[in-house]
Amino acid sequence: MSLAFDDYGRPYIILRDQGQKKRMKGLEAYKSNILAAKAIANTLQSSLGPKGMDKMLVSPDGDVSVTNDGATIVEKMEIQHPTAKLLVELSQSQDAEIGDGTTGVVVLAGKLLEQALTLLDKGIHPLKISDGFDRACDVAIKHLEQIAEEIDIQANDHEALIQAACTALGSKVVSKRKRELGKIAVTAVLDVADLTRKDVNLDLIKIQTKTGGSVEDTRLISGILIDKDMSHPQMQKEVTDAKICLLTCPFEPPKPKTKHNINISNAEDYNKLYQQEQQYFIDMVKLVKNSGANIALCQWGFDDEANHLLLQNDLPAVRWVSGTDVELIAMATGARIIPRFQEITPEKLGKAGSIKEVQFGTSNERMLVIENCQCTKAVTILIRGGSQMIVDEAKRSIHDAICVIRNLIKDNRIVYGGGSAELACALQVLQYADEVSSVEQYAVRSFADALEGIPSCLADNCGLNPITSVAQAKSRQLSEKNPRIGIDCMDLGTTDMKEQRIYETLSSKKQQIQLATQVVKMILKIDDVIAPDDY
Amino acid sequence: MDIVGNVLPQVLKDEATEDKGEMARLQSFVGAIAVADLVKTTLGPKGMDKILKPTGPGQEMTHITVTNDGATILKSMYVENPAAKILIEISKTQDEEVGDGTTTVAVLAGELLREGEKLIQKRIHPQHVIAGWRIARDVALKRLRDISTENDINSQEFHDDLVKIARTTLSSKLITTDRDYFADLCVKAVLRLKGSSNLDYIQIIKLPGGTIRDSYLDDGFILKKQITIGCKRRIENAKILVANTAMDYDKIKIYGTKVKVNSMDKVAEIEAAEKEKMKHKVDKILKYQPTVFVNRQLIYNYPEQLLADSGITVIEHADFEGMERVAAATGAEILSTFDAPERSQQVLGHCDLIEEIMIGEEKMIKFTGCKKNEACTIVLRGASTHILDEVDRSIHDALCVLITTVKNKRVVWGGGNSEMQMAAACEEEAKKVQGKQAFAIEAFARALRQIPTIICDNGGYDSAELIQNFKVELQKGNQTCGLNMTDGTIGNMNELGVKECLRVKEQALMAASEAAELIMRVDNIVKCAPRKRERA
């Protein structure tokens, strides 16, 4: 920490607890930040692409998860370095916005920072670098839009969507069943999609996991699956033509929010109170029954007596249904969520074709399936797998695939994968670099190099020679004027990604390049880091 | 520090570690193989048991477990290695899903990784290994399904198959000497379920004393509770009311109620009202005209006496499970309110006879001739609680396998036959595949073949010779050959009656290969800083 001295040679204290803080500034700060961010990118780099490897992460409590998903990896690494945390957020915002390409965005940012480091060493001012990156980014995006192709998502039984889902699933542990899972994801999204508005409400797709069986046993249920069973073991296990009463009040005597006391001072009151209490239960059940409902789903618990009264009235009921499930059921069956027993009316009931209990394995675990809902078609994907870790990873993978399909429905423009889009942009940026007459030229050129880093990284992960394969692809793109030439990761004998049918959404690619550039610009603007010394 | 010598800033938290590439892989292999080796010796009919001793203050030596069951061993182990945890996880899932083959699945995954490690050392990329394993797995699965046979569920053959499967499962357990007896017992119990897979109906009661041979299957239902003093000990043609209601005193359920009195008289009044309320409840119960009253909760002396006075036999404090079983077996409804005596016919359960019986030293209540005749009870006797616990686990395994078989119906030959067949199928396939994947397919076959090899080794036989003879025998077209573990020869599984359930084998194969693949794909292990715990 630098110190300032007054005329008498006494040090000024500028920052509070100055002695305990560490300060880095200037070039030292730039380099330290870049190296930290690069460390994260390096970790993720080997997960990129269809032959990418997984990471095993052990949580502070010793729980193990194995994953290939960039956003999950950086989240679970528990990073503490402030600049590295920016990359975590970068990956997460890609996840939130697009849902896929979370690894790619971090790797690209890492490549950009690597280039920035050499530029800094050349003595170019950080702001010039970020300006150059910015201009290059614009060029790249424009070029991406030019090479993007519109695809017909309806054609050939939604083949294009399935292919895009397969591309997303290709890098995951479930890749051996990517076709089946891709189909499941496509069917699920199309079931709930609003094609006229080009919108998909992902809340309507519920992903439920259950260990056991294998990934092949994963299936799509055209309805809602809830991990609950009937409140009373003897209630009927199947309801057809269900009229659902969706309650958010417990089957218990009311519990006013205002603090109150009921004082009983004599036996008469005591008896009255008892009568009153009994009446509550009878009324509650009666209100539900009278509305014509034949099943009650409740977010809260039941009193034993109420529970039995429900059974006695042939009214199957489910208790402790989670809040999200309640909302999902409400959306799907057209039920209104009823907060008070007095407000139950027949119009507020939801309708479903059938509700039944299903059982898994040897242990007594049961779940409820609600099928043929009246309103929208909510669907559930039930994921099975040999262990909790596989199931969890499959869930993340399917989520990615679903996001890709949704993005395609919103915007049906695609670019080709296998690093071809990045290469094409790199060539375009390189061409543009020569037109720039100022110092930024170097930054623009470096941007192109960074973009080339992606295909080279893909090639590296697939066991190909990165330099030769990227050089080959580059020269073929130029000579054949074909922006679809990429890296043949799967060893299929062709480098034309259109033939390999590796589809990526334009929106995802655009977002990747833009987000990565933004974060890099942000990191390049930091010239002073003040932090507690124990860092 | 990186290669150039720049000091790298610290990115992860202080105690967090990150292992990359070879180091990470080595760590997973070592961990997973160690776990597999640990349970390896329990495999097969000549496998040995393990003693599990808990650590921690206050429970030294008090709760030891002696077991042969893979899932139980693995569940009780505390491991830190993440790959080892994955193996434990699949063993648990196997237990939940099919109930048996929990050791096999861990050992198979371990052997696959052992073979995988060799391939990695030969500089074959993990993704190629995985690609090969995937081909091998599909081939093995296909062969496994091809060699399985199916019998009609009602035929005598199917019944024989069930007995054979139960015998095979039990042969590796403590009760191997009495396996015929127990196999028969388990099959009878499962057949009573008539295709339902609800294990709740089969109750297992463990009572120390006597010998294992004294265990028996009772067609009635036994509740490990006592009939309240002063009630009849034997009720014929019983009408049973099963309730879940407070019979101590009815607490007021309305929130915020307080009893405040200003004189002693009032106290007496309230007490009388309370008593009256209970009496009223009992009266309502009496209107149902039951002869037996079973309650989940405690029954205080006053209502108990009222009920006993009316000639009703009272059973109190049956827990949730007991109550649900009684209800299921006798066809009773579990009541919590008593305002509809007209439904008495519907809600009361029936059974021909309820009596108090003595098993060993303990008094229990036996319900015979229940309305729904599916329930039955297996009473286990044995010299010590440790033996009983192990017998319980063995019986549980056998029951699970039988239920799975009843559902799936397909069976395969035991004695290592299915593994050898699958291995042979993989080797045939390896000859047709181009590229490096072929090595991985061969490795898969070797790993499969390790299962019978380990079984031989555990029996103290010359595994190298036996397995080779086994291979030759299969090559000759003898589809039913397998290991004869009593003589240490290759025998005919049909004659020996060694059969296994297809579903168990399938699940083991798939879970093990999935887990091995999961571990193989890892090239980086990040361990977060362990959460700081306050010292108590």
Q: What's the structural blueprint in terms of helices and strands?
A:
The complex is a heterodimer of chains A (535) and B (536).
Chain A: E1 4-5, E2 11-12, E3 21-25, H1 27-45, E4 54-58, E5 64-67, H2 70-76, H3 82-97, H4 102-121, H5 126-147, E6 149-150, H6 155-169, H7 178-192, E7 193-194, E8 199-200, E9 205-211, E10 219-221, E11 223-226, E12 238-247, E13 262-264, H8 267-290, E14 295-298, H9 304-312, E15 317-318, H10 323-333, E16 337-338, E17 350-360, E18 365-373, E19 379-385, H11 388-410, E20 413-416, H12 420-433, H13 440-461, H14 466-480, H15 497-500, E21 503-505, H16 506-524, E22 528-532
Parallel strand pairs in A: 9-19, 12-14, 12-16, 14-15
Antiparallel strand pairs in A: 1-2, 3-22, 4-5, 6-20, 7-8, 10-19, 11-18, 12-17, 17-18, 20-21
Chain B: E1 17-20, H1 21-40, E2 50-52, E3 65-67, H2 70-76, H3 82-97, H4 102-121, H5 126-147, E4 149-150, H6 156-171, H7 179-192, E5 202-208, E6 216-218, E7 221-223, E8 234-243, E9 257-259, H8 264-287, E10 292-295, H9 301-309, E11 313-315, H10 320-330, E12 334-335, H11 344-347, E13 349-359, E14 362-370, E15 376-382, H12 385-408, E16 410-413, H13 417-432, H14 437-459, H15 463-475, E17 481-484, E18 489-492, H16 493-496, E19 499-501, H17 502-520, E20 522-527
Parallel strand pairs in B: 5-15, 8-10, 8-12, 10-11
Antiparallel strand pairs in B: 1-20, 2-3, 4-16, 6-15, 7-14, 8-13, 13-14, 16-19, 17-18
Helix pairs in contact in B: 1-3, 1-4, 2-3, 3-4, 3-17, 4-14, 4-17, 5-13, 5-14, 5-17, 6-7, 6-12, 7-12, 8-9, 13-14, 14-15
- Content of β-strand of chain B: 15-25%
The tally of strands of chain B reads: 20
- State the low-pLDDT regions of chain B, or none: 1-5
Structural class of chain B: alpha+beta
> What is the residue-mean pLDDT of chain A, rounded to a whole number?
83
Total strand segments of chain A: 22
Radius of gyration of chain A (CA) equals 30 Å
Any low-confidence stretches of chain A, pLDDT <50, length ≥5?
Answer: none
Gross geometry of chain B: globular
Distance between the termini of chain B: 39 Å
N/C terminus separation of chain A: 15 Å
Quickly count the helices of chain A: 16
Q: Using CB atoms under 8 Å apart, which protein chain pair has the greatest interface?
A: A-B, 87 and 90 residues
Main beta sheet of chain A: 7 strands, mixed
Protein name (chain A): T-complex protein 1 subunit epsilon
Pfam family, one (chain A): Cpn60_TCP1
Family (chain A): Belongs to the TCP-1 chaperonin family.
GO cellular component, one term (chain A): chaperonin-containing T-complex
